[in-house]
Write a structure and sequence with these properties.
Chain A: InterPro entries: 4Fe4S_Fe-S-bd, 4Fe4S_Fe_S_CS, FAD/NAD-bd_sf, FAD/NAD-binding_dom, Metab_Enz_Cyan_OpOx_G3PDH. The complex is a heterodimer of chains A (543) and B (95). Chain A is of the alpha/beta class and 543 residues long. In chain A, the strands form seven sheets. In chain A, strands 1, 2, 3, 4, 5, 6 and 19 form a seven-stranded mixed sheet that branches. In chain A, strands 20-23-24-27-26-25-28 form a seven-stranded antiparallel sheet. Chain A has a five-stranded parallel sheet with strand order 8-15-9-10-11. The longest helix of chain A is centred in the middle third of the chain and has 19 residues, at 304-322. Chain A is globular. Chain B has 95 residues and is mainly alpha-helical. Chain B is built from four helices and two strands. Chain B has a single domain, classed as Arc Repressor Mutant, subunit A (Orthogonal Bundle). Chain B has a two-stranded antiparallel sheet. In chain B, a hairpin with a 4-residue loop joins strand 1 (7-9) and strand 2 (14-15). Classes of the chains: A alpha/beta (543), B mainly alpha (95). Chains A and B meet through strand 4, strand 6, helix 6 and strand 17 of A and helix 3 and helix 4 of B. The structure holds iron/sulfur cluster (2 copies). One iron/sulfur cluster binds at residues 194, 412, 414, 420-423, 442, 459-461, 463-464 of chain A.
C-alpha cells in the first residue's frame, strides 16, 4: 500500500499571494504546507527591484524584494507553516488527492483544503519570425538581469506598454542596456503614467498605435519592422519602419495559470479583462469546488498588492472554515481585506478589473464611489505620449508665480488617478494631500512645504521634484530623484534634460542625499540656469 | 504575413499556417488541434500556444471566446521519471 499524508491546508505557489495566504491561515492555528516549484520562495517578487504603489498598509513605497524579505521572514518564523521547496504539484485528482514531486519522489497528500496561488504565465505574440533567438518574454529578461545578473542584450525593442513593459524597460536602462523604443498597439499607454514619464525623461520613445510586423535577422534578432495602426487596429499604409535592435522583449500581458485547476475540473471561463481563462469563484476566493480556493493572478491578473490581499482573504476563509477559534475576529479581518480590495479597485485604472469581476458575478451590489472612477484631469495627451500637457503641468504648479519666492517647494508631477500614497505618508510636514482617498491626485500645500526633499526619494513613480527658483540671481536648483550608477559627486557638471529627454543645458551638482533613508533613490540637487526651472527634470552623469 | 514563419507552438514548432489549415479542415476545438498538430504537447503543455489557438479559432469560426475551451490538462504536470513515481508510492512495508 502506498502512503497518503493528511494535511490541513495545502498552499500551491510561494509568490506574494501564496505567502500571504499561508501566513493568514497559520496565524489562526491552521497547519499549512506551502509547496513551491522552485528552490526558493518569492515568485515574481524576487525580481521586483522597484518600489511598490498601493497603500502603506500593504507596504507601498517599499521595493518588491524587500516586501518579500519580510514575508519570507514571517513564514520561516511561523511554526504552523511547513515549506516544501523544489516541490512541483504534479496532479490533483477527483478525490482531492494531490501528488507532489519532492526530493525526486512522487508523494501523495490528502489536504482538507487547498489554496491555488499558481500565478500567471506570459502571453505570446504571433508575428513573422517570432522564434528567432533574441526574442524574450519580459519575465525572462527580468529574471536574467535581476536574479542572475546577466545582460540579455545591448539594445532592446520592448513590445507592450503595460506596467511590466515599462518597469522592465526602466530596469534595462538601469543595467546599462539601451531601449530602442516601446511599441504599444493600443492608442494609449497601458501602465501607470508616472512609469511612462520616467522613461520619456530618459529619452525612450513610446510609440502608441504601433505594432510589430516581423523580426529581422539571420541567426538572431538584428531588428524589427514596425508599423502604425489606425483606430480599428488596421495597419496604416506606408508606415513601416525598421528599428535596429539585438533583442525583442514581449510584454503583451499575462494570463492566469489555471492548468492544475483544470485537472480538478474547476469551472473556468474566458474573461478578457482578467487576462484569459479564470476560475469561477466567490468573494471569499472559493472556487466551484468546495474547500478549493484561489488567490492572486491565477484568479485574474492584477497587481501584487491585490494578490497579497486576496491571499489573506483565502487564508482567513480557510481558517474560518476549518479552524476552531476566533471566528468573529477572522470574519472582521476578511471584511477588512474586502474593503481594501474595493478601495484599490475603485479608481479609473481599476475599471477593467471591475468589469472583469462583474462578468464573474462578483461586484454586483457593490457601491464603488463613482466620484473616483473617472480621471480628474484630461490626461489623454499624457497617456498617448508619456509627457504631461501644459494644462496638466499648470494644474500642479502654484497659481501665483510669487509662491516660488518663498524658497524651495515641492512640485508633484503625478496626474493620474491610481491607488498610491507614499508621497502623502512620507511628508513630515503634512504638506501633501490626496483629499482622503488613495485614488486621488496628490496636491502640495505650498504654505506647509519646506522643500526638504524627503518626498523626492519616497515617491515610487519618481514624480516628486523640489524646485528652488530663486537660488541665486541667475540660477535655480531642482532636486531630482536618481536611481542610476555611477552616482554623481558634488561639484560635478552633468547634462540636464527635459520631460522628453531632450538636452537642455549643463547643470552643477550641489548636494546629494543618498543614505539609508533614501534607500537607493538618491535626491540630487542640480543648479541650472534660471530659465529652465520648469523644464529641467532629469540629468545624466557622463561615464 | 507569411503564415509559415509565424510560430504558434514553440515547443513543437507548429506554425500559424498549420493551425489555420487544421481549423479549415474542421478541427475547431483546442483539444482537437492539439491532437492533430501536436501543439501544446511539449514541455510547456500549451501555456504559450493555448490562448493563441483559442483566439484563432474564435476569429475563423466567429465563435465568441467565452464558448471556446482550452485543451484538457492531465496529470502529471510536467515531466517525471518512472523511478520518481515508484520511489514515492512504495513504502518501506512493501519491500
Ligand atoms: S519637500 Fe518636504 S515638506 Fe515639501 S512636500 Fe516634500 S516632504 Fe513635504
Ligand atoms: S506622487 Fe504620490 S501618488 Fe503619485 S506616484 Fe508619487 S507617491 Fe504615488
Amino acid at each position: 500500500m502506498s502512503k497518503i499524508e493528511n494535511l490541513e491546508l495545502l498552499v500551491v505557489g510561494g509568490g506574494p499571494a501564496g505567502l500571504s495566504a499561508a501566513l493568514a491561515a497559520a496565524n489562526y492555528g491552521i497547519k499549512v504546507s506551502l509547496a513551491e516549484e522552485r528552490e526558493f520562495l518569492g515568485g515574481q517578487l524576487i525580481k521586483q527591484t522597484h518600489r511598490f504603489f498601493g497603500s502603506e498598509k500593504e507596504y507601498a513605497g517599499t521595493r518588491g524584494i524587500d516586501i518579500l524579505r519580510k514575508l519570507i521572514d514571517e513564514v520561516n518564523k511561523n511554526k504552523n507553516i511547513e515549506v516544501l521547496l523544489s516541490s512541483r504539484v504534479l496532479g490533483i485528482y477527483e478525490d482531492n488527492v494531490v501528488t507532489i514531486l519532492n526530493d525526486h519522489k512522487m508523494k501523495k497528500y490528502y489536504p482538507q483544503s487547498i489554496i491555488f496561488a499558481t500565478g500567471a504565465s506570459e502571453k505570446f505574440l504571433a508575428f513573422e519570425n517570432n522564434d528567432l533567438p533574441g526574442i524574450f518574454g519580459a519575465g525572462a529578461v527580468q529574471t536574467l538581469m535581476n536574479v542572475y545578473g546577466v545582460m540579455p542584450a545591448t539594445n532592446v525593442l520592448m513590445i507592450g506598454s503595460g506596467n511590466i513593459g515599462l518597469i522592465v524597460s526602466y530596469q534595462l536602462l538601469q543595467a546599462g542596456v539601451k531601449v530602442a523604443a516601446i511599441v504599444e498597439a493600443a492608442p494609449k499607454i497601458g501602465g501607470y503614467s508616472v512609469h511612462a514619464s520616467k522613461l520619456r525623461r530618459l529619452g525612450v520613445p513610446i510609440l502608441t498605435s504601433h505594432t510589430i510586423k516581423k523580426a529581422i535577422g539571420k541567426e538572431k534578432v538584428e531588428g524589427a519592422v514596425i508599423c502604425e495602426l489606425d483606430n480599428d487596429w488596421n495597419e496604416v499604409k506606408d508606415t513601416e519602419q525598421l528599428i535596429k535592435c539585438d533583442a525583442i522583449c514581449l510584454s503583451v500581458g499575462l494570463t492566469p495559470l489555471v492548468d492544475l485547476l483544470k485537472q480538478r475540473k474547476v469551472k473556468t471561463t474566458y474573461v478578457s479583462e482578467l487576462g484569459g481563462y479564470v476560475p469561477l469563484r466567490d468573494e471569499n476566493m472559493e472556487t466551484s469546488i468546495k474547500n478549493l480556493f484561489v488567490a492572486g493572478d491565477v484568479s485574474g491578473i492584477e497587481e501584487a498588492t491585490a494578490a497579497m490581499i486576496e491571499g489573506q482573504i483565502a487564508g482567513l476563509s480557510v481558517a474560518k472554515r476549518i479552524g476552531k477559534n476566533n471566528k468573529k475576529e477572522i470574519e472582521k479581518r476578511i471584511e477588512e481585506g474586502k474593503n481594501e480590495l474595493e478601495l484599490l479597485r475603485s479608481g479609473p485604472v481599476g475599471k477593467k478589473i471591475r468589469k472583469g469581476l462583474s462578468k464573474l458575478g462578483l461586484n454586483h451590489g457593490k457601491n464603488y464611489n463613482e466620484n473616483f472612477s473617472e480621471e480628474a484631469l484630461d490626461i489623454s495627451h499624457l497617456m498617448k505620449t508619456g509627457v504631461p500637457s501644459e494644462e496638466n503641468l499648470k494644474n500642479k504648479l502654484p497659481s501665483e508665480e510669487k509662491v516660488f519666492d518663498k524658497g524651495p517647494i515641492a512640485i508633484s508631477e503625478c496626474f493620474q488617478r491610481f491607488p498610491c500614497d507614499p508621497c502623502v505618508k512620507s511628508c513630515p510636514f503634512n504638506a501633501i494631500s490626496e483629499n482622503g482617498n488613495i485614488n486621488n491626485i496628490p496636491y502640495v500645500d505650498f504654505e506647509k512645504c519646506t522643500g526638504c526633499g524627503i518626498c523626492v526619494s519616497k515617491c515610487p513613480g519618481l514624480a516628486m521634484f523640489v524646485v528652488h527658483k530663486n537660488f541665486s540671481e541667475t540660477t535655480s536648483v531642482v532636486i531630482m530623484p536618481y536611481e542610476f550608477l555611477p552616482r554623481p559627486h558634488k561639484g560635478e557638471i552633468v547634462k540636464v534634460f527635459d520631460r522628453e529627454g531632450k538636452y537642455l543645458c549643463d547643470g552643477k551638482v550641489i548636494r546629494i542625499l543618498d543614505g539609508k533613508f533614501q534607500d537607493k533613490t538618491a535626491a540630487v540637487s542640480i543648479e541650472i540656469p534660471k530659465r529652465y526651472y520648469l523644464q529641467a527634470r532629469n540629468f545624466k552623469v557622463e561615464e | 504575413m507569411d503564415e509559415n514563419k509565424v510560430i504558434i507552438c514553440r515547443c513543437e514548432d507548429v506554425t500559424l499556417k498549420e493551425i489555420r489549415n487544421a481549423i479549415r479542415e474542421g478541427f475547431t476545438t483546442v483539444e482537437e488541434i492539439k491532437r492533430v498538430t501536436r501543439s501544446g504537447m511539449g514541455p510547456c503543455q500549451g501555456k504559450t500556444c493555448g490562448l493563441l489557438i483559442a483566439k484563432e479559432i474564435s476569429q475563423m469560426t466567429g465563435k465568441p471566446m467565452e464558448e471556446i475551451e482550452l485543451q484538457n490538462i492531465r496529470p502529471p504536470y510536467g515531466g517525471i521519471t518512472f523511478e520518481e513515481v515508484t520511489k514515492g508510492t512504495i513504502t518501506e512495508n512493501d519491500k
